[in-house]
Amino acid sequence: MQPYIPPSSPAFEKESHIGNEPASIQARIAGDAVVRDYENKQHQLSEAIDATKHLVADLKNFNTEEWKIRYPHFNQPSDTATPGVGRRALTFADEPSSSTNVIVNSVSNERRQMKRSVTLLDESSLTEEPASVASSESEDFSILQLDLNLGATRHAKALISNLERSSISALLDNRLSAALDHLNLLHARIHDAHSRVLVTGDLNAGKSTFVNALLRHSEVMPTDQQPLTTRFVEVVSARENNDVEEVHVLEPNVKYDPADPSTHTVVPLDQLEKLATDIDNDPSAPPLRVFLRENSIGSSNPSILHNGVVDISLIDAPGLNRDSIKTTANFARQEEIDVVVFVVSAANHFTLSAKEFIWQAGHEKAHLFIVVNRFDQIKDKERCRRAVMEQIKQLSPDTYADAKDLAHFVDSAKVAMGFEDSDEDDSADDMDAAFSYLEQSLRSFVLVNRAKSKLGPAQNYTTHLLADVELLASANSVVANQERDVALKEISRVKPELDRMKRGKDSLEDGLVTEEESVTASATTNAKQSLRAALDRVGRGELAEGVPVPVYPGLLGAWDYAHEVRRALLSSLDIAVRSVEDSSRDITTGAVKTIGGLGDKHLPADVERSKRVFNANAMFFNHSNAKGRRVSGRQYVGLGLAGNSALSNVSVSDIFDLQYHLFLTDSVPSESPKLSPLKDLIPASMNNEVSGIGAASLALGAFSMAGGKTVALRSLLEGIVQLSELASNPVVRKWAGPAFGVIVAGAIAYVVYELPRTIPRNVGRHIRAQLLVTSGGQEEDETPFCEAESERIGREVRKVMRLAAWDLRERFRAALEVRNEIVRQSEETAERATRALEWFTEVEQRVDLIRGQLGLKL
Ligand SMILES: Nc1nc2c(ncn2[C@@H]2O[C@H](COP(=O)(O)OP(=O)(O)OP(=O)(O)O)[C@@H](O)[C@H]2O)c(=O)[nH]1
Predict the structure, then answer these.
(1) In sequence order, which residues have a C-beta less than 8 Å from that of residue 505 and are 6 or more positions away?
(2) What residue range is the signal peptide (predicted)?
(3) Which of 55, 104, 277, 445 is the 20 to 30 Å CA partner of 119?
(4) Which residue ranges form the domains of the chain, and what is each CATH number?
(5) More confident residue, 51 or 661
(6) C-alpha 224 – ligand 1 centre gap (Å)
(7) What's the confidence (pLDDT) of residue 17?
(8) Residue minimizing CA distance to atom 23 of ligand 1
(9) Which of 224, 275, 342, 417 most suits a substitution to test ligand 1, by most atoms within 8 Å of the C-beta?
(10) 740 C-alpha vs ligand 1 centroid, how far in Å?
(11) How far lies 750's CA from each of 707, 719, 737, 760, 761, in Å?
C-alpha cells in the first residue's frame, strides 16, 4: 500500500509545491508495487481463464462425443421424515420422474469460493447430519443455467422437463459455447491496456487545469476564470495515432475507428479550445478525442497517459450544473470508466450539484477519487480540510475510509503553470510533492480499480462457471456411477447364463440331431417290420383282428366272394398301416417331449417355452385326401388300400390259380419275388372277364386240386402222358373213358368244395406278391409297399422332429442373441460410464486446481 502521509506532514503543509523527494519517491515505489501486484494478478487470472477455457472446451467435446451430460435438478426429498441438511432428491431434466437421494455438499473457502459436490445418500448414516450447507445457491447454476426463453421463464423448469436427453445436451452445448465466448471476452478485457479516467466536478473547480497538470502541459485544455468547457474531451497518447497530435470529432451513433476517417472529422490541435468551449455544444455528444504527444515529459516521470501497464486516457467533463448532472452521471456509469476523479474547489466545498452527482455516481463507482483544488487560495487550510473531510465522510464513506489515498488537497494551477517555462529535465523535480503524491495515488487507484473493474468480473464469472462445471460433473458422476453399477450387475447376471448357453450350444445341436435321427430310424424300422409281418399274414390269407370274415355265398357267388375277400385283406393291411402310424405317433410324442426336455435343459429359465402343443393326430393327415375317414376320433389317411381299384379288382386267378399250381410245388407263398410276379403270370385279358382260357384254367385248376392238395400240373401232365401210353393197351383204353370222367367229376367237386379256403389264400398271395414290388398306390410305383410306407412314416416323423427342433433352435438362438446383446451393451455402458466417471473426477480435480489460481484477493 501507499505510505500514509499524515495531514500534519510537512510535505502536505509546505506552501512550496516544488519537490519533496522522499514523499514522491515513496509514492512512486508504492505505485510500482501496485503495478507489479496488478501484473501478477492479471497474469494469474489470465492463466486461470485459459485453464477454464480448456476445461469448458473439453467438457463441450465430452458432451458431444462421449457422454450426453445430464442437467440436474435438486428438489426437496419427498420423504421429509429425515430430511437432513443438504439432503436432496436429484432428478434430471430429461427424466423428471425418477429421483435419487443425494447429499449436496457445499463448502465456501476463505475467498468465498464455493466448492460443490453431490454424493449418493448413504441411508445407513442418516442419523449423522452431513457437515454441509445446502442453500438454494448451492444447487443452482448461475452461468450454465438453462433458460429456454419461451416466454414464461418461471415455468422454464417444467418445460425443460419435457425435453429429450439429446435436446438438453444440445442446450447445454450452447451454454458452454456462450461461456467459452465470454471467457474469451474476459481474457481480452483483462489484457486491455486502456483505462479511462473521468475528471468531473463543479463549474470552474479547475478540472481543465487539473487535467493539464496531469498531462504536464500548461494549456492543452482551455481554462478560464469563467465556466468554459461545454463538451467532453478525452485526451489520449498520440502514440495511438501514429504520434500525430490532432483532434478527432466523433460522429454521434457511429462506431468510432481511429483508422477510418469516415467515422470522425480530423481537426488540428489548436482548434481544440474552440471546439471544447463552443456554447452550442451538445453535452451528450461523443467526447472529442485529443491525441497528445508526450514530448515535453521526461521519461523518468511519464505522464499518467502512459504508465507502463495501462494507457490511461483522461476525460475532461463540462462542469456540473442542473442540466449536465444526468449526462455526466450516465457517462461515469459506463463500464469503460475505471475511475471517476471528482474535482471540488477548496473554497466552495461540495455544492448541491456536486452532492447530487456523487450520490448518483457513487452507486456505480463506490470509490471516488476526490481532488480538493485551489487549496493554495485557502488561508485556514486545516479548517478547510476538516470541513471538506466531514463532507466526504457523508457523501462517500468508502472514499473517506481510504482518504489518505483517495482525497487530495492540491494546487493544480501552480503545477500546470510550472510546465510553462520549465525545460524537460527539471520538470519532475519541480513537481509539487502533494500533487506528486496525488498522481501516484491516482495511478495506483486506477490499477486497483482496474483490478476490481476488469479483473474482478473475470474472476467472479470464472469462479461461478467453475462451480457450475463442478456441480454438473459431480451430479453426472452420480449418474455414471449408477449406470456403471447397473451395467455391471446386468453383466454378472447375464454373462454366466450366456457362457452356459454358448457351452451348451453344441450339445443341444447334437441332442437335436441325434433325437431326430434315432426317432426317425426307429419309426421307420418299426413300420417296416410291422408292415412286413402284416403283409405276410395277408399273403397267407389271414385277416386282421376285427375285420369281418366274408361269408361264402356258394359257387355262383364265388366271384363276389373273391372280391369281398380282397377287400377284407386290403382292409387288414389298412389296419396294419394305421396301427403302425399310431405307434409312430406315440414314438414321435415321446421324442417331442424329449426335445422339450432339451429345451428345459438348455434354455434359460426366463425364456418363454414353445406354446405349440404337439397334436399327434395331425400326423399323417393329408388334406387333399382326408374326407370322411375318421376312426375313433383320428383322421386316418392311411392308404385306403381297400378302395384302391388297382388292388381291389378281382381276377380269375384269385379263384383258380392255374399258373401258381403249374409252376409251384409248394403252396406256401415264396419270399422270392421272382416266383410271383403276378403281372407276368396273368395275361391282361384275364383281369376282366372269364374267357375261354379262363375256363380252361378253371378246369385245370380244379384238376390240380383233385390230384391232392398240392399236386403240380406238371406231374398231372406227366401222368396224362403215362396215361396215353397206357391207352395203347386195349384194356386200359376200354376203362379210360369212364375213369377219366369220374376223376374229372371228382376233381371238380373237390375244387368247388375247397373254394372258400383257396380263394383267401389266392387273393392274399396275389396281394402280397403285388405289394412286394409296388407301393400299392394309385400311381404305378416300383417301390415295394413296406419300404414305401415305412419311408412315408419316417418322413412324417422327421417332419415333426424338424419342426420341434427348429422351434427350439430358434428360441435358443434368439435367447443367445438377446443375452449377447445385453452383455455387449452392458459392457459398453460400463466402459463408457467408467470413462465418464474418471473424466468427471478429473474435472473436479482440475476445477480445484484452477480455483487455487483464481483465489486472488483483488
Ligand atoms: N489559484 C488557483 N487557481 C486555479 C487553480 N485551478 C484552477 N485555477 C484557476 O481557475 C480558473 C478556472 O479553471 P478551469 O480549469 O478553467 O476550471 P474548470 O473547472 O475547467 O471550468 P469549467 O470546465 O469551465 O467548468 C482558471 O483561471 C484557473 O487558472 C488552483 O489550484 N489554484
Answers:
(1) 602, 812, 816
(2) none
(3) 55
(4) 193-431 (3.40.50.300), 649-775 (no CATH)
(5) 51
(6) 6
(7) 37
(8) 229
(9) 224
(10) 183
(11) 10, 19, 20, 17, 16
Q: Give 232-282 as a DSSP string.
A: -EEEEEGGGGTT--EEEEEPTTS---TT-GGGEEEE-GGGHHHHHH-TT--
Beta bridge partners of 561: none
User: For residue 120, how far is its CA from the centre of ligand 1 (angstroms)?
Assistant: 70
**pLDDT number for residue 316:** 92
The rounded mean pLDDT for the chain is 78
d(CA 577, CA 616): 16
Residue nearest to atom 14 of ligand 1 (CA): 206
Give residue-wise pLDDT tens across range 330-347. Answer: 888 777 788 899 999 999
Sign of torsion over alpha carbons 168, 169, 174, 180 = positive
pTM of the model: 0.63
Task: Output the ligand 1 site: residues, CB below 6 A.
Answer: 203-209, 223-225, 227-229, 319, 373-374, 376-377, 411-413
pLDDT at 585: 94
Q: Which amino acid is at 731?
A: V
d(CA 848, CA 50): 15
Tell me the mean pLDDT in the region 775-800. 85
Q: Whose CA is nearest to atom 2 of ligand 1?
A: 374
Strand 337-345, strand 369-373: pairing: parallel
373-412 tens-digit pLDDT: 999 889 999 999 999 999 999 888 888 988 988 999 999 9
Question: Which comes out higher in pLDDT, residue 294 or 697?
Answer: 294
54: number of Cβ within 10 Å: 13
* Per-residue confidence (pLDDT) for residue 529, from 0 to 100: 95
